[in-house]
Amino acid sequence: MPAPASETRQNRFDRVIAADQRIEPDDWMPEDYRKNLIRQIAQHAHSEIIGMQPEGNWLTRAPSLRRKSILLAKVQDEAGHGLYLYGAAETLGITRHELLDLLHTGRQKYANIFNYPTPTWADMGAIGWLVDGAAITNQIPLCRCSFGPYARAMVRICKEESFHQRQGFEIMVTLCNGTVEQKAMAQEALNRWWWPTLMMFGPPDTESAHSQKSMQWKIKRFTNDELRQKFVDATVPQADLIGLTVPDPELAWNDERGHYDFGEPDWDELRRVVAGDGPCNAERMATRKGAHDDGAWVREAAVAHAEKVAARTAEIAA
Amino acid sequence: MSDNWNLWEVFVRPRRGLDHVHAGSVHAPDAEIALQHARDLFTRRGEGVSLWVVRSADIVASDPGDAGELFDPADGKDYRYPTHYELPDEVANM
Ligand SMILES: [Fe+2]
Ligand SMILES: [Fe+2]
Q1: Which of A8, A113, A153, A168 has the fewest CB atoms found within 10 Å of its own CB?
Q2: CATH value at residue B16
Q3: Spatial distance between the Cα atoms of A146 and A155, rounded to a whole number of angstroms
C-alpha cells in the first residue's frame, strides 16, 4: 500500500476537524498543529506544577486541620493535573525529560499568575475562588478540543477543579463573616488577585499571537476576550454576595450588552512579568529546579533497584 | 540517568462487574512503582477497585492509516443487526 499523498492526509485531517471529531496521536497531523499543541499542553502542564508553589507556601500554616487537609488535597490534585497533561503532550512525540528541560531553561513558559506572592491566608481563598475559577472558565471548552488526549485530560481535570474553586470561595465567605480585620484581609486578597486573574486569559484578541490558528483547529473554542467576559460576568455577583468590592472603578453592568463593562488590565505589567520581572519568577524557577535536582537520587535509586531485581529474577530463571 | 523511567499505560476497573478502562499513563522504573503511581494519579477519589499497568512499549496498535481496509469487511452487512429483519406486526417482542 503506497503512503497516501500529503494532499489526501491533509484532506482527511480537515474532514475530521470539520466533523468535530477527535485527532488521535497516531493520526497524521500538520506539523504546525503538532507544534502548537505541544506548546499549549506543555505550558498548561508547567502551570499546574508551578501552581503548587504559591499554595504550598501555606500548607504548614493552614488555620485548622480541616483547612490543611483540603489544601493538601488541592495541591496534590494540581500535581496530578500536571502529570495528566505531560502524559497528553508525550503522545505527540516529545519526552517528559525534554519537557522539563524546556521549563527549567526558560524556553517554555508557565501561567504568569503564579509569579505573584501569597502573603496572607486570604490569598488561599482568592486563588481558589479566582485563579481556579478562571482556570475552569478556560478549561471547560478545552474538554471539546480537537486533540483526543488533551480533551480527555481536560475532562478529568475539570471534574477535580470544581472543588478547588468552592474551597477557595468558602475561605472568602468565612473571612467575610469574621472580624473586621478578617474581612479586610479578604478584600486585600481580592485587590491583589483581581487584575492578574483577568490577565490569565491572555492578551486582548487584537494582539493574541496564537488565537486564530487555534480557533481554526478547534483547539480553542472561544477567544481570550470572550472567556475574560464570561469570567467577569460569573464572578462579580459572587463578590457582591459576600460584600467584597471588585477593585475596578470602571466596572458596571451594561443592560444593553447584557454583560459587565470593565476596565483594561495593565498589559505592560503582563509583558513585564512574562519577561521574567515579576515578584516571584526567580523564586518559582529556583524552587522547581531545586526539587528536580534534589529528587534525582531517588529516581536513580529506583532505577538501580529495578535493574537489580530484574537481574536477580533472570539469574534464578537461568 | 534519572530520566529513563519507562512509560506505562494504566487501566482502571471502576467497580466490580465493569471492564478495566484505559485512564492514561505514568512513568515508573518497574511495575510495582507503576502501580503505586497509578493509584496516586488515577484513584484519589475512589475511582477504582482494580488497576492494570502495561508497559507502553508492549502495546501493539493497529495503524490508523490502514483503518479503511482493516474495518471495511464490516461495512454493508445490515443483516448483522436486528433492525434488518421485517417481522409481522403481530409479533410484539422479539
Ligand atoms: Fe489544576
Ligand atoms: Fe485547581
Answers
A1: A8
A2: 3.10.20.520
A3: 13
In a domain? residue B58: yes
Do A77 and B2 lie within an 8 Å CB cutoff?
no
- Which domain range does residue B55 map to? 6-64
| Chain B nearest C-alpha distance from A300 (Å) | 5
Give the residue from chain A lying closest to B44, CA to CA. A77
> What's the predicted TM-score (pTM) here?
0.92
Q: What is the pLDDT of residues B69-78, one digit of tens each?
A: 899 988 899 9
A225 neighbors A204 (Cβ within 8 angstroms): yes
Report whether pLDDT(B39) > 70.
yes
For residue B91, being part of any structural domain is answered with: no
Residue B94 included in any domain: no
- Residue from the list B5, B61, B69 with its beta carbon closest to the beta carbon of A299: B5
Å from CA of B57 to ligand 2 middle = 32
Q: Do B2 and A299 touch (CB under 8 A)?
A: yes
- Residues near ion ligand 2 (CB < 5 Å) are A 132, 161, 164
Number of compact structural domains in chain B: 1
The answer to whether A158 touches A139, Cβ cutoff 8 Å, is yes
Selection from A239, A263, A265, A238 nearest residue A252 by Cα: A263
| Chain Cα centroid distance, residue A297 | 29
Q: Is residue B88 part of a domain?
A: no
ipTM of the complex: 0.87
Grid coordinates belonging to A283: 523564586
Name the CA radius of gyration of chain B, rounded: 21
Order across the sheet with B21-28: list the strands: B21-28, B6-13, B50-55
Contacts of B48 in chain A (CB under 8 A): none
